[in-house]
Amino acid sequence: MTTPHPPVPPAGSPQNDPAPTSGAGTPTTGAGSGRSGYLYRKVALHLADHPDQILKVGDITRAIGAPSSGAVFEALKKMAAAGHATHHRNPHRFQITQAGIDAAGALPPAAPRTRSHGSAGGRQSRPAPVPRPNGTLYHPRRLGRGWDVEELRRLRTQQVPVLLYGPPGTGKTAMVEAAFPDLLTVAGTGDTVVDDFLGSYNPVPGGGYEFVHGPLVTAMREGRVLLVDDATLIPPRVLAVLYPAMDGRGTVTIPAHGNEIVQAVDGFYLVAGHNPGVHGAVLTEALASRFTVHLHVTSDWDLARQLGVPKPVVAAAIDLNADLAAGKTVWAPQLRELLGFVKVRDQLGMSAALANLAGIAPQDAHDDVTAALSRHTGTPITALALGKR
């Protein structure tokens, strides 16, 4: 089914001007460029820059400097047909979806498109989102004189180890994955043992055993990055296996494999993650002293809004995080939960998404989360449950 064209507006209306034509009577494809897809990119990137807004065709046309609102409307219809935008009618308005945001992040830039931020040395362009191994995009954040992904790579070249700390779900792992495509990861728990780093004997088909080296050894030999996630959940005596690899020696010994000695090659680098509020997490002095940089990672509320989280929901999350810091509640949603909220909203609707966000809170924080969401959104929240047939 073809979406009908918008009604022709009164003369002089900027919203739905007819598309200009070339000498052959064919609608132009973009703002004077003649390149296929040029206008589509500009439209998609403009919507991605305003994820919270439902925009009129005329407003988009003026913002991107396109000569024809009719051509812009055609591009918007294509976005809606692809599931990248929601089409509201009477009047025709469009809002980008999460799928559209993801797709826009992978588009070549439709010049001129510069996101700049003032700095002491002038204007510095924001880097493009960086793909992670799971296909999602990481949006770099400011760190020091640059951007976090770039600065982490620079610290690696200088062999300055980094400990990332902050609540679960704030993007610590995502940042490291975006910075280092050659990453290996050990997910720490209270049951992590030395063999999880160094390796162990595994059975082979036909009988017998062979020694399989662990991720620490692989990272040292191949000059790769090792992320020890939730490092402070690992027993201190187990974490001690890392220390000789991090200091001037750059070696580890594998007792289970004939005291084999492994020497780190250039490029080997170690990053660790610490969730201070998680039960059982203990940051020992021995571990803390091995990391030159301790980087606090919090949720990026501006990014949450940019990625389509409604402003009242972000405001509720900010209040809950303030209460968490003050000891008034035991849990608060972070960026991970807010992005999950957007996915649920897009599939099940706003009421279900609010109920689900309150429902995933720990029991001790459920009432606090429900009250904050209700207060900011003005929506009564009940448990997400199946209805009658």
**Sheet with most strands:** 5 strands, parallel
Pick out the low-confidence regions. 1-36, 109-123
Helical proportion?
Answer: 25-40%
Q: How do the strands of the widest beta sheet line up side by side?
A: 11-14-17-10-18
- Beta-strand content estimate: 15-25%
N-end to C-end Cα span: 31 Å
Structural category is alpha/beta
Radius of gyration: 26 Å
According to DSSP, the number of beta strands is 18
Total count of helical runs of at least 4 residues: 16
Global shape: globular
Mean pLDDT: 85
Write the layout of secondary structure elements.
Layout: H1 38-48, E1 55-56, H2 57-64, H3 69-81, E2 85-88, E3 93-96, H4 98-105, E4 116-119, E5 122-125, E6 130-131, E7 137-138, E8 142-143, E9 146-147, H5 148-157, E10 162-165, H6 172-179, E11 183-187, H7 195-198, E12 199-203, E13 209-213, H8 215-222, E14 225-229, H9 236-239, H10 243-246, E15 251-254, E16 260-263, E17 269-274, H11 285-288, E18 293-296, H12 301-306, H13 311-325, H14 335-348, H15 350-359, H16 366-377
Parallel strand pairs: 10-17, 10-18, 11-14, 14-17
Antiparallel strand pairs: 1-3, 2-3, 4-5, 6-7, 8-9, 12-13, 15-16
Helix pairs in contact: 1-2, 1-3, 1-4, 2-3, 5-6, 13-16, 14-15, 15-16
